[in-house]
Amino acid sequence: MNKKILLLCISFFCLASTNAYSKFADLSRITPTIGKQSINLWFWKIASTIDDQDDIENNLLDTISSVDPNVKIYVHWFDSNDEYYWFFYNANRKNDIPSFQLRLFRNYVLNSYYLNAVGHNDYHILVAEDKWGDYSGVAYLRGHFSLSSDDNEKIAAHVMGHMLNAQHNYDTSWFSASIMYPHPSYWLYTLQTKFWNSDNQHSVGRTLKKLKHFPDSKLIDIEYLGDDSTKNAKKYNGLKWDESRANIHKLLVEKNTIYDITIIQADFDTYLYVYDKDGNLLDKNDDGGPGSWSKLEHQDFGSAKEVYLVVSGYKRASGEYKIRLTDYKTLIIEDSDTLSSLGENNNLRNFINLNNKVWIKVHNGIWVGEITLPQRFLGKKRKVTLTVDSRWPVKVIFTVNRIKKSRIVSQGEEITWVNTGDGWLIK
Fold it and tell me: What is the C-alpha separation between 112 and 244, in angstroms, rounded?
């Protein structure tokens, strides 16, 4: 199985910690993920004898992807191989009262670990070999903590549904039942991971959409308030000011996209760094943003899928801060199937909706005769560039102040149209 494991220790960045190592398994070593719809999924094994780990995981991943296949899921298991497993086991010994066990588990995680981001997308499932009394699983509805027994490998998917705001329902079909059937261990029915009623599909879908921390082509503020600030972060060597307290954020990035990263609010003088996945410093900034705050502009990470943002302070200063991330996306269209679809106005409109710039490239053998730029689409300040390297010209139809116009683009020409809100102007 191709597991996506989030084990991003600080040592990946070659920044040595100067703090004494915690007696707990240290979740602060796991970086919060921003950039795309994502879930950090934590399985906590209360007993080392659990043997359905792969089935539990596969069923849960299958369930979530059946509602939204675009969600990235990062999975981590804590078990007897973990250095701090026995401390966790002692704190969460099996109890036959599920509500008490769930509260104990929740309090243990919140009190012992550093949950970094406000509105975090971390979900925790405590897995046991047997039931809690008559219950195979329990979850906080729209919460982040649940219990699941190993007697049915689909229980974890069921409780995950509750955490994502799904309700019980009785939908069944020939010895099969919805994943949210209220009696998941009932002998007559087998839970089906892709069997949802429409209400639950919509509820779970809305919850998953909210996990998208960095929507395409939009601004978003990732806030770190209260305990979630560099005041409580670990200290690291290797930054500009040694032994600086620093937060590390994993940013999922895309090709053909330019990023601006700005500290827009802070109660201390900030430093901002960006590293690749191998710990190589890509860029850094001191006072490029407002006042003494930091800003990194026009960051193009090429084909990289992930980079790491590090926020620290001048002369070991620390405090609360807010990051603003903006992206500028360019979609390059040069394959024959996509080019041939551009004659459908809605298709080009969809591309413009999702990207700041659409760059159309035609050449001999891959060509489109006519393109109509849509009058209406989401957002403003969009660009469309046409590069013609074919013997045959391309006709572009567009509007300016509700007046329809056209332009023939011939071989060797490259023309850019910029939308002003009232139509398209040739740049």
Answer: 23
| DSSP β-ladder status, 281-285 and 190-192 | unpaired
pLDDT level of residue 160 (50, 70, 90 thresholds): very high
Q: How far is CA 137 from the centre of its chain?
A: 27
Amino acid sitting at position 395: K
What is the mean predicted confidence (pLDDT) over 400-424?
A: 90
Give the number of other CB atoms < 10 A from CB of residue 252.
17
Mean pLDDT of 264-286: 85
Alpha carbons 121 and 215: distance in angstroms, whole number: 15
Provide the phi-psi class of 386: left if phi over 0, else alpha when psi is between -120 and 50, else beta: beta
Q: Round to whole Å and give the CA distance between 144 and 126.
A: 11
4: closest CA among 60, 44, 47, 50?
60
Percent of the chain with pLDDT over 90: 22
Checking if the pLDDT of 56 tops 50, the result is: yes
